[in-house]
Every structure is written in C-alpha cells, then in structure tokens.
Write a structure and sequence with these properties.
The chain is an alpha/beta fold. It is built from six helices and seven strands, in the order αβββαβαβαβαβα. The two termini are 36 Å apart.
C-alpha cells in the first residue's frame, strides 16, 4: 500500500470517527436536555414568513409557553432580529404569537437585534443582567441545543435546556442534524483560533 493511499485511508477514518462523535454529542445532548426552574425562559429565534412564525418557531414558542405555564420561568425573552424576507423582527413575531396565546405582554422581553445564535445569547444575557435574572431555560430545536449550550456557557449564562423535534417536518429536522456537525466544528475552530 502506497504512502498516499495510507494517508487517504487514515484521514478518511479520522474524519468518519469525528463525524460520528460530533453527531452523537448533538443527539445525546438534545435528547437528554431537561429544563430546570429558572428566572426566565429564552426562546431562540427562527425564520418568520412576513409576519408569521415558521413551523419550527411555532414549536419553539409552544414549548416556551408550556414551560412558562408550568412555572419554569416568570418571564420569556424572545430573541431574534429582522432577516431577509421578514417584515418584522423574529422577536416581534414571537411576542405577538405569545400574547395571542394569553401571555401578558409585560412578561415578554424582546431582544430584536440578533442575526445569529451567538448574538441571540449575548443580547439575551444583557437583558438578563438588566432584569437581575441569574438563570434561564433555553429553548430551541433539539439538534441546535448542544451548540447553543456551548455559546451560552461562553456568555456565563446559567442555563438549562429544552428542545423540540418538529415531527411534521422530519426532513428539515434531519437536515438540521446534518448541518449542525460542520457548524459545531466551525464553532470549535473559531474558539481555538
């Protein structure tokens, strides 16, 4: 076997193992995340169609609503700016949705400047500090929770986590898990350098 072939086989094996380990981390964390009673609930933003929350965002909001109604937090921070094709910020769409479900608007804190998960968490931490909150339940899709947890830790957020799996959009969820593997590597590389 030539040296070049050995190198290719070795590299392929290492890459395959790395993908498996990262995928396992993502799945294990998302499946085992358990919320804890906290000062607030942070619902991370997702696509809005005009003014209407996407199905993924609706599921996140419904989870945040259920946690709020079960006493896991006294306030909800809705986090997300205005992206391409969105007529209002994700935070505004999220607040409108929650108010339509009966939540007092004064219990909803809007963070409407963020364009990424890291920005969501940086800005949500600022909102927490302003309100004197010490802990949060962070809500997102299950595949997103591991990376979100690393980012939350980097911002010194004392967080627990609660994830959703949108069964009616199984293909998109699976795509999310696949995309999350390189996203995790990118996060680790950025942290390293």
């Amino acid at each position: 076997m030539s040296g070049k072939l050995k190198f290719v086989l070795c590299f392929t094996t290492i890459a395959f193992v790395a993908v498996l380990l990262t995928g396992f981390q993502i799945i294990f964390f998302g499946e085992n995340a358990e919320p804890e009673k906290s000062d607030c609930i942070i619902v991370l933003g997702c696509r809005v169609y005009g003014t209407t929350p996407s199905p993924f965002l609706v599921w996140r909001l419904n989870r945040g609503l259920a946690l709020y109604n079960s006493g896991y937090g006294k306030y909800i921070i809705v986090s997300g700016g205005k992206g391409t094709g969105e007529n209002i910020s994700e935070a505004e769409a999220m607040k409108r949705y929650l108010v339509s479900k009966g939540i007092d608007g004064s219990k909803i804190i809007m963070e409407d400047k963020s364009a990424s998960t890291m920005a969501n968490l940086i800005n949500s931490k600022k909102a927490m500090d302003e309100m004197g909150f010490k802990s949060a339940v962070i809500v997102s899709n299950k595949y997103h929770l591991k990376r979100a947890s690393l980012m939350a830790e980097s911002q010194h957020i004392n967080g627990s986590y609660s994830g959703v799996f949108v069964s009616s959009h199984r293909k998109e969820e699976i795509s999310g898990y696949i995309r999350e593997v390189p996203a995790m590597w990118k996060y680790y590389l950025v942290k390293l350098f």
